[in-house]
Amino acid sequence: MKTTASILVTTLLLLLSVTVYAIPTTITVRVISKGAKFVGTSMGGAQITLQNKITKELLAAGVTNGSTGSTEKIMKTAGYRNDPLSDEKSAKFTATIDINEPTWIEVTAYGPLAQIQSANTVSLSQWVIPGKHIDGGDAWLLEMPGFVVDILAPPTHTKLPGEVESVQIQANITMMCGCPIVPEGLWDASKYEIRAIVKKNGEQTEEVPLSFSGKPSLFEESIPVKEKGVYEVTVYAYDISNGNTGIDRVTFIVQ
Questions:
Q1: Are 197 and 237 in contact (CB under 8 A)?
Q2: Which residues of 82-91 are buried (b: 16+ CB within 10 A; e: fewer)?
Q3: What confidence tens digit (pLDDT) does each residue in 134-161 have?
Q4: Do 93 and 47 form a contact (C-beta atoms < 8 A)?
């Protein structure tokens, strides 16, 4: 009996000696619009997931919330490379995960959630050491490319009489953070290509530039309609300086 008890005690001590306890590790994630500010509450935030890159285990999930950040700090102040762009109010998602060994973690952001037609997905991965938090400065920062393009007119699947001669195309276009686009503004409409690609029955007929309407982020143009058929219009915004691009599509029917 003593021998058996001794073996059990020894085994227990060995197990305890090799047990590695999970250590709470804090990770903060921010998503910044390419060429603009943070994706936060005003745009529905961005869905964030953290997972073990190797095992695919979901470690945490949530949505960024907070402000788009300081325009002065992000867009107007020329700081050093490692100077943070964020402040205390800038949108973020923070999670504390329990890991017991260096873990290869992938973070994925999807959004903006308030404009699903323009939502995008970006992912990054890095090693995380137990107890070595990622929450200083901008923390884990992902850049979200794209523009939010929302066609307001015509309504989807509108049916128009055959005698119609033109159709008004109208689109609201912002940065992914919701920042407005206006001529000579901080996000200068004159530096972006904003155009409509028109197809009839699947064949492209023309490409038409959209003009600034006079209201922030609102662009419009009338396109000629010469024949009956199913029309598809793709409105896109393109920044020639960095390749940033966003689109939306609508269809209408001339009977």
A1: no
A2: eeebbeeebb
A3: 999 999 999 999 999 999 999 999 999 8
A4: no
Chain-centroid distance, C-alpha 71? 18
Instruction: Report the pLDDT value the prediction gives residue 17, as an integer from 0 to 100.
Output: 47
For 202-240, b/e burial (b = at least 16 CB within 10 A) is eeebeebebebeeebbbbbbebebeeebebbbbbbbbbe
Q: What is the mean pLDDT of residues 91-120?
A: 98
Q: In the chain, what are the domains? A: 21-144 (2.60.40.10), 147-254 (2.60.40.10)
% of residues, the chain, pLDDT over 90: 84
- Give Cα 95 to chain centroid, integer Å: 19
d(CA 40, CA 136): 19
Place of tokens 């920042």: 179
Cα–Cα dist 143/185, whole Å: 22
Taking residue 196's Cβ as centre, other Cβ atoms within 10 Å add up to 21
- pTM, two decimals, is 0.87
Cα of first residue to Cα of last residue in the chain, in angstroms, is 94
Do the beta carbons of residue 72 and residue 98 sit within 8 Å? no
Closest CA to 186 of 89, 95, 68, 82: 68
18 falls in which pLDDT band (50, 70, 90)?
very low
Closest alpha carbon to 41 in 16, 68, 17: 68
